[in-house]
TrEMBL record:
<dbReference type="InterPro" id="IPR003593">
    <property type="entry name" value="AAA+_ATPase"/>
</dbReference>
<protein>
    <submittedName>
        <fullName>MoxR family ATPase</fullName>
    </submittedName>
</protein>
<feature type="domain" description="AAA+ ATPase">
    <location>
        <begin position="40"/>
        <end position="206"/>
    </location>
</feature>
<dbReference type="GO" id="GO:0016887">
    <property type="term" value="F:ATP hydrolysis activity"/>
</dbReference>
<dbReference type="InterPro" id="IPR050764">
    <property type="entry name" value="CbbQ/NirQ/NorQ/GpvN"/>
</dbReference>
<dbReference type="Pfam" id="PF07728">
    <property type="entry name" value="AAA_5"/>
</dbReference>
<dbReference type="GO" id="GO:0005524">
    <property type="term" value="F:ATP binding"/>
</dbReference>
<dbReference type="InterPro" id="IPR011704">
    <property type="entry name" value="ATPase_dyneun-rel_AAA"/>
</dbReference>
<dbReference type="InterPro" id="IPR027417">
    <property type="entry name" value="P-loop_NTPase"/>
</dbReference>
Length: 308
């Protein structure tokens, strides 16, 4: 059964409520730019470190609005045939041979037949442009910085006019523009021409209170004391000069892993045994195991005890 699309929020407060009801804990700045993107029908460009919840925004928005989510996962070498459309060449060849076998050799009619929509394979971009009025999909262009500049340039027409040209069929224009969310981890700079077509927001790591709220929603079975210690420990880790500091996704994973181990509080041994859930580079792990971890844990325990 198709999801029933719901109307856009009519205020920033309604946008905050919409996200909260879908268990996404947003700050007011994010809710504001998201509200404006929906009202102005402009793409939203989200930049930030990996694991801060950029992709999740698109997923939550699609769920909250009852819209389909179409995701274009970017990677090096992504081209038009993978992103927009391609022809089903195998089916076309079979059709051509069947027509020849039946003696139908009218080249014009044959070409018109094999280059009909019947043989068109729709990739994410084309799927996003074919949404119906009042039910346009959420179109997630994820990790755009992984592609090259030529593909980035190709997106300019799509983001400006919400249309794409298929030479054999003509121009396909969106009946209603999709809700476009673009994410980047800033491994390279995105050209200003693309950014100008979008509203922009930097998604930062949450403060301790908001991150604790996130953990409470995503890992509701976790012990409250454990959740507080996990969040405080991660917040302190982010102040260190690590190769890759943990994102919110890692905080949630760590709280979930510790809960699976029936832990109700952190201790040095537990931190050492499970640090691979939180950190993904050996140099960072070695630094924590060589004394930094114990120091941070001691600070966490002292601060929480003082706050009680």
């Amino acid at each position: 059964m198709e999801a029933t699309s719901r109307p856009f929020p009519q205020s920033i407060d309604e946008t905050l409520k919409l996200l909260s009801e879908a268990d996404y804990v947003a700050d007011r700045a994010l809710a504001t730019v998201l509200f404006l993107a929906l009202r102005m029908k402009r793409p939203l460009f989200l930049e930030g470190e990996a694991g801060v919840g950029k992709t999740e925004i698109a997923k939550v928005l699609a769920e909250a609005l009852g819209r389909p989510l179409i995701r274009l996962q970017c990677y090096e070498g992504l081209d038009v045939s993978s992103a927009v459309y391609e022809w089903n060449y195998a089916a076309q060849m079979i059709e051509i041979r069947m027509e020849e076998a039946e003696g139908r050799v009218d080249r014009g009619a044959m070409e018109k037949n094999v280059f009909s929509e019947k043989y068109l394979i729709r990739r994410p971009v084309l799927q996003a442009l074919e949404g119906k009025k009042g039910a346009a999909p959420v179109f997630l262009i994820d990790e755009l910085d992984r592609t090259d500049e030529s593909f980035e340039a190709f997106l300019l027409e799509i983001l400006a006019d919400f249309q794409v040209t298929v030479p054999e069929l003509g121009t396909i224009k969106a009946e209603e523009p999709p809700i476009v969310i673009i994410t980047t981890n800033r491994t390279r700079e995105i050209h200003d021409a693309l950014k100008r077509r979008c509203l922009y927001h930097w998604v930062d790591y949450p403060d301790a209170a908001r991150e604790l709220d996130i953990v409470a929603r995503k890992v509701p079975q976790a012990n409250q004391r454990l959740s507080a210690e996990v969040v405080s420990f991660v917040q302190k880790l982010r102040q260190l000069e690590l190769f890759k500091v943990p994102g919110v996704a890692e905080t949630i994973d760590w709280a979930g892993a510790l809960t699976e181990l029936d832990k109700v509080a952190l201790d040095p041994e537990t931190v050492s045994d499970t640090i691979g859930v939180l950190l993904k580079y050996q140099d960072d792990i070695a630094r924590i195991e060589q004394g930094e971890g114990r120091r941070l844990l001691k600070e966490v325990k002292a601060e929480l005890a003082a706050a009680e």
